[in-house]
Design brief:
Blueprint lengths: L2 H32 L8 H18 L8 H18 L6 H21 L5 H8 L3 H10 L34 H19 L3 H12 L4 H8 L3 H18 L8
Helix pairs in contact: 1-2, 1-3, 2-3, 4-5, 4-10, 5-6, 6-10, 8-10, 9-10
């Protein structure tokens, strides 16, 4: 048995052990994303992308850094799935235009009234009935996902991947530490400007990691209504963060 064969066999065995241990985590993230994108996106394709992210994480992880491997894997797996989604244009142009129009309306009305706009106000501004507006919110749910990579970077570090800062001690990378501090400050400020119900939804869904059905039970709403509020919350947040409503 030559050395090259032994090394290849060892790598394969390590990959099999990693997959056995982290497949539940991959499935979890794939399921979370699958619920928020169009039906044309297959769960198995997201899982496949996550597996590639896991293997990439294993190659890139540095045990000398002050980061837990499980945390690093979670970001890499999710990032790989997001990269997969970005490889093809799965959102019709009409929905992109609709998303941009709603986001612009939310920002214009907030500037006019000095407070977050209500559903009925946005609907009237767009010349829609309340029901039609909420249907549009439901339709664009696949676009209403905010990722770190989508958010504007501080001037001077535009080419920095926020997730790359996980690879090292921020104290060793002043530009990364500054970028993360500014990003966190800007995001916190935007979240504070959200209506109370949208802040609660954000906390339950992204921090407590409840699914839409569980959030609906907590808020006493239907799952469809929670999905609509989530879409509006993300559109509003994207506008507050200075993102183009036409991008996904």
């Amino acid at each position: 048995m030559n050395v090259a064969y032994q090394e290849a066999r060892g790598e394969r065995q390590n990959a099999e052990r990693l997959l056995e241990e982290y497949l539940p985590l991959i499935r979890y993230h794939a399921d979370q994303l699958r619920r928020r994108v169009p039906d044309s996106v297959e769960l198995d394709d997201l899982i496949d992308a996550g597996v590639l992210g896991l293997l990439d994480a294993a190659r890139r992880f540095d045990p000398e850094r002050d980061v837990q491997f499980k945390t690093f894997v979670a970001f890499r797996v999710r990032g790989a799935m997001i990269d997969y989604l970005r490889q093809f244009d799965w959102m019709p142009r009409t929905l992109r235009d609709s998303s941009r129009q709603m986001q612009q309306a939310l920002m214009e009305l907030e500037q006019r009234y000095g407070r977050p706009a209500e559903d009925a106000e946005v609907a009237a501004h767009l010349g829609l009935s309340l029901e039609e507006y909420r249907q549009r919110l439901e339709q664009v749910r696949g676009m209403t996902v905010v990722y770190f990579d989508d958010l504007p970077k501080p001037q001077g570090v535009e080419d920095m991947d926020i997730l790359e800062t996980l690879e090292g001690d921020p104290g060793d990378r002043p530009e990364a530490r500054t970028a993360l501090a500014l990003f966190a400050e800007r995001l916190a400020s935007a979240i504070e400007r959200l209506p109370a119900r949208e802040r609660v939804l954000l906390t339950l869904y992204y921090y407590e990691e409840l699914n839409m059905k569980e959030v609906a039970l907590v808020l006493g709403l239907t799952e469809s209504r929670v999905s609509q509020i989530h879409s509006q919350m993300v559109l509003r947040l994207r506008g507050l963060m200075g993102l183009d409503g036409g991008e996904s």
